[in-house]
Amino acid sequence: xxxxxxxxxxxxxxxxxxxxxxxxxxxxxxxxxxxxxxxxxxxxxxxxxxxxxxxxxxxxxxxxxxxxxxxxxxxxxxxxxxxxxxxxxxxxxxxxxxxxxxxxxxxxxxxxxxxxxxxxxxxxxxxxxxxxxxxxxxxxxxxxxxxxxxxxxxxxxxxxxxxxxxxxxxxxxxxxxxxxxxxxxxxxxxxxxxxxxxxxxxxxxxxxxxxxxxxxxxxxxxxxxxxxxxxxxxxxxx
Length: 238
Known about the structure:
It is a single chain. The protein is α/β, with parallel strands linked by helices. It has one domain (2-236): Aldolase class I (TIM Barrel), CATH 3.20.20. It contains eleven helices and twelve strands. It has helices at 32-41, 52-57, 63-71, 86-95, 104-108, 110-120, 148-157, 179-185, 202-211, 220-224, 229-236; strands at 2-10, 13-18, 21-29, 46-51, 76-80, 99-102, 124-131, 134-137, 142-147, 162-167, 192-196, 215-218. The protein has an eight-stranded parallel barrel, surrounded by eight helices. The radius of gyration is 16 Å and the shape is globular. The model has no long low-confidence stretch (mean pLDDT 94).
């Protein structure tokens, strides 16, 4: 299983939100590049970056920070947040980002998502954020009527090869991840599932790996020390 430590960017700082609430934000490192370097030193091979400013306000203010992280080398980086057109995808790939995550645009413009999956293949993933089982968009501010699992099935049928699924109610809470959600998603053929949101204990990583999750994203748990990243990498990193 791949392990993705997470860096959420707001104002070029590494932060965490509680349940996606921009008013409940904690700054964990004012230097995201230094934070990424620490992850490399812990043995990380992958990095999950979310541009919170891009997701909320459609800005590219954090792009240079992401470029600086990419220049460190040694990390396969996936980036989400504010990616709404092909130009932004191209920009990130040219910076050295490994794959781009389509979120709101995947829901609002499904035909675009289908085309990007065909054009870029494994360099595109879809981030599916769910609140009470329903798809949430626009920085989690808007909840749609479509069930998240049904949307994931649509993505798979359209040729999307990877889903990053987040239960918003668990994200940043340290209350444990939604294992039942991932069990259900893993019944969808032909799609890689990444678990995100609420992972708080090493035992959860063991369960996610055993059920067949392709990857897991670690956020608050590694910033607070609840999970030791170096130890997790030794035990579970693919």
